[in-house]
Amino acid sequence: MTALPGRAGVVVIGGGVMGTSIAYHLARAGVPDVVLVERDELASGSTSRAAGGVRAQFSDELNIQLGARSLEAFARFGEETGHDIGLHRVGYLFLLSTPEEVEAFEAGVRLQNGLGVPSRMLDPAEARRLSPLITTDGLLAAAFSPDDGHCTPEAVVHGYTAAARRHGVRVVRHCEVTGIETRGDDITAVVTALGRIDTPAVVCAAGAWSRAVGAMAGVDLPVEPLRRQIAVTEPVPDLPPDLPMTIDFTSSLYFHTEGPGLLVGMSDPDERPGFATETHDRWIPRLCEAMEHRAPALLDLRRTGGWAGLYEITPDHNALIGEASSVSRFLYATGFSGHGFLQGPAVGEVVRDLFLGHDPFVDITPLRAERFAADALRPEVNCV
């Protein structure tokens, strides 16, 4: 186990995709004495429980750019880090059943195309050719981008961690942060269960637990945890190898291949905010109802497993990325509301540039946490 260093140039809090990407990008840029602390095992929070989808199909220009930049990084990940992340670029297929959905996605496709994303609208018959497990009853149209897909979240974390260590990052697991010390407006140390680290800078990448970390430095990060569940099925005979990530947008039912079977999930409107991650079956009747309506073939499949994880929800379902104005050198990247894993590579670049005082490849000023106090919400429509 890595010993706790007594000092650091910067402490990154959180060992999921966001923290490991940020630590890697900082160290690769030559930032010395980067220390990453994780209170449990790496990827043990939300990252290991993500569905693994990667996409650039969003309604918000910033999310499109962060998603597209991350897709480029995922494509070269093996070459850059030496780790295979099981990337399947099979596309994302959004199934649309109301005129309002079609209109919103048509506008989204125009915006995406203008930013270089090759998404397009499809008719129901084309959608069923791509995803033969669905029924087209009541379907008006679909949106598809072939560049999207899915990969293995834990593999991304371990790849970033190994590469970060090669660049000198100290990674300390089983090290819970209990406080952040300041003198005036300056950060002076991070206090952990294993001891104190003198440091002038902190990056909060603690996901659903970020609000408590921000509060230690007097920074309000309006993030709420919300349980989301996933089920895994038995092997499916004759499953197309290029089956896209398929999402019935009206119900939020989604599925993609997981080994020889399927990974299936959807949102649960009855779920209340909290840190519980036990699985339960209260969502299954609603899941079955959505399957019956849009993909009845799924009803015949036996569930062989599943898990629950936490979304980190903000009031407008968009991320918090920036540097606090109330205390010096407290940076944050959190609140991704379900699309954090897929934006991890690009956000690592952005936070690196903010730390170094450089202009990131995209202006993320609208994602600063202060937007809520200024009533400048930035809603994302394409949430699942």
TrEMBL record:
The UniProt record lists the FAD dependent oxidoreductase domain at 10-354
Name the UniProt key words of this record, in alphabetical order. Oxidoreductase
User: Which GO terms fall under molecular function for this chain's record?
Assistant: oxidoreductase activity
**Annotated TM spans:** none
Q: Name one GO cellular component term.
A: cytoplasm
Record's protein name: FAD-binding oxidoreductase
Native organism: Streptomyces liliifuscus
